[in-house]
Amino acid sequence: MPAYKVTYFNVKGLAEPMRYLLAYGNIDYEDVRVERENWPALKSNMPMGQIPVLEVDGKKAHQSVSICRYLGKQVGLGGANDWENLEIDSVVDTMTDFRLKITAVHQETDPDLQAKKREVLEKEHFPFYLEKLEAIATENNGHLAVGKLTWADIYFASLFELLNVLAKRNMTDGFPHLKKLIDTVQSIDSIKKWIAKRPVTEM
Amino acid sequence: MPAYKVTYFNVKGLAEPMRYLLAYGNIDYEDVRVERENWPALKSNMPMGQIPVLEVDGKKAHQSVSICRYLGKQVGLGGANDWENLEIDSVVDTMTDFRLKITAVHQETDPDLQAKKREVLEKEHFPFYLEKLEAIATENNGHLAVGKLTWADIYFASLFELLNVLAKRNMTDGFPHLKKLIDTVQSIDSIKKWIAKRPVTEM
Questions:
Q1: CATH architecture of the domain covering B82-186
Q2: Which fold has domain B4-75+189-197?
Q3: Cross-strand pairs, B61
């Protein structure tokens, strides 16, 4: 078994999907949580000056979605062929599009602009993305791709812990397949154990 | 050979990387270019109401980067193993981060805000991303991952046709490995032939 290390801040955020996947695979790893005041000294050691970073036997990888795709394959949650992987990848990219709509509002520093952007988010982007994802889950036996559990489902359940905080609501209210999917993932024994023992953080 | 169809507007944009990859693989395909006035009628037929869309034997796929990863594998330009694919995927995700910084400026409708964002883009994001990508190419034998030609290189060469227009400059000026990489890709016989025969469009 290779030596795995996840480096991120002491938040769930973009590292939590990889922590879920490592838990799912019962893979031991070092869960390094950098305090904000120590980050400037560490930043230049990271491939793009960003975290999360995954290390495997000392080799560093960056970009959270790419890392989750890699880990998904390691724990047996990839597609059965290239076309299935395309289906998985495209729904994950759709989640990224949605995440970026939400973080753009969160990061807007001008209060008037932020209010305007939040209105567009709530009136247009929330229904658009959530209805599409709900329809996908309805067509895929409660999953987000290829009709069975894949890393896209794990990614979704963990990402929504962050997105719900940023969106200031439980976004799966009113979307029963999405809500059930999160329950399904979080009820997997190894993930349930991880959630029970992980550090308590807001984001 | 499956029947391939690419549907997009009559621009290079986000479809051009897939057109390059199909050219590289000498794969015949239907190159559908939708006129803007016909788009509203077609939109609801597309998986997320967006294009580009790739069809393979009538099955639709969306999300341009996911599609390019799929096509990259079909034409033999994927990694040799999961770790190599992670390296390829992460540099492509970095290009997406860079693209989104550039398109955010392009899409800003407030002229004052746009000027401010353009200044940040030029002073911070251009040097940051271009220096990083140049360093990666220097370390990878003139390529962007795993020391040899992969779909990340094809993606880069075609994406930069769009990004240079949006950035209002030839961004590879002063970055010899990146400039040479684009030349290398565009000199591949099948891609050279595609560039010579494709519709002439600005973007």
A1: Up-down Bundle (1.20)
A2: Glutaredoxin (3.40.30)
A3: B54
* Chain B environment of A61 (Cβ under 8 Å): 86-87, 90
Q: Which two tokens stand for residue B167?
A: 């950035």
pTM above 0.95, yes or no: yes
Q: Which of residues 40-59 of B touch A (CB under 8 A)?
A: 47-48, 56, 59
How would you write the pLDDT of chain A (203 residues) with one tens digit per residue? 899 999 999 999 999 999 999 999 999 999 999 999 999 999 999 999 999 999 999 999 999 999 999 999 999 999 999 999 999 999 999 999 999 999 999 999 999 999 999 999 999 999 999 999 999 999 999 999 999 999 999 999 999 999 999 999 999 999 999 999 999 999 999 999 999 999 999 88
Name the token pair of B42.
């077609």
Chain B partners within 8 Å of A69 (Cβ):
85-86, 89
* B197 vs A: CB within 8 A: no
- The phi, psi pair for A167, rounded to 5°, reads -80, -10
Residues B113 and B153: their CA atoms lie apart, in Å, by: 33
